[in-house]
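Design review, sub-item: ligand-bound model
Attendees: FS, YL, KQ
YL presented the inputs for the zinc ion complex:
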Amino acid sequence: MNLKVAIQKSGRLHDDSVKLLTDCGVAIKNGYNQLKSVADNFPLEVYFLRDDDIPQYVEDNVAHIGIVGQNVLLEKNKSVQVVEPLGFGTCRLCIAIRKSEDYKNNNYLKGKKIATSYPVLTQKFLDENKINAEIHEISGSVELAPSIGLADAVCDLVSSGSTLFMNGLKEAETILKSEAVLIKNENLEEQYQKILDQLLFRIRAVRKAKNNKYVLLNAPNDSLQKIISLLPGMKSPTVLPLAETGWSSVHSVLNENEFWEKIEQLKKAGAQGILVIPIEKMII
Ligand code: PRT
Ligand code: ZN
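KQ shared the predicted structure:
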């Protein structure tokens, strides 16, 4: 009995999805043009699909769970449950217009033609803002639409912004912020839910570890109190005496977000020989 997970066959979410499973200790083979793969060491079967099809497969319980961008999930509007945000595939769905245009507010969009591969989300934004505009659905190279006279504006995914820039466009509105999420069938049977719970436990440990670093440093004993007060640790920092009297080694865990700021404060407080080590798994 295997839990079936649908992930993107190839594209922007593929590598991170495979890496997440691999980091969770699930060994999957991914041969060229392979549709599915069974893990050797965990009750998991992986289906490789186009991202657009994943919500439907999960709604139909053909796959029990899936990894897909929120943008696709909301556009497809299928009945599935979001289990966990995954922190990769981050992007935003934006309305963009020609750089030369003057944009004050969304009144600008009234009566305009908007090219997009996301007609549902674009229409929803227009309805919510009581804007009457025409949607022109196209499946690819949306950013070219204004320059070839197909539309006045586009609604497309943006990450770095360079595609818009290179096509003479600028962002006018962000209508959705998106990242990859783990979804599951709404009526997942208990035996599969149990496997999902095991997988989720591992996913959370892997993600937590990624956001934290193990820090070791040397501190003169008279600065210890100050240094300890800067370090949270899992419970509290570990302090061990060094061979040289008057010095201690301090071990702790630091969150990525506060990392550089803390390191500077630690140096100022007298810490020396600071080592920073990645953490593989973190279970609290
Ligand atoms: O073949 P399949 O249907 O599975 O793949 P696809 O071609 O539909 O999707 P793919 O692989 O391009 O993207 C998969 C998912 O990655 C998307 O649904 C988003 O959730 C996420 N993602 C994150 C992105 C981007 N960032 C992104 N930048 N998807 C697309 N883009 C494109 C965007 O459409 C535009 O063309 O990248 C361009 C903009 O990038 P910047 O960096 O120039 O702004
Ligand atoms: Zn797609």
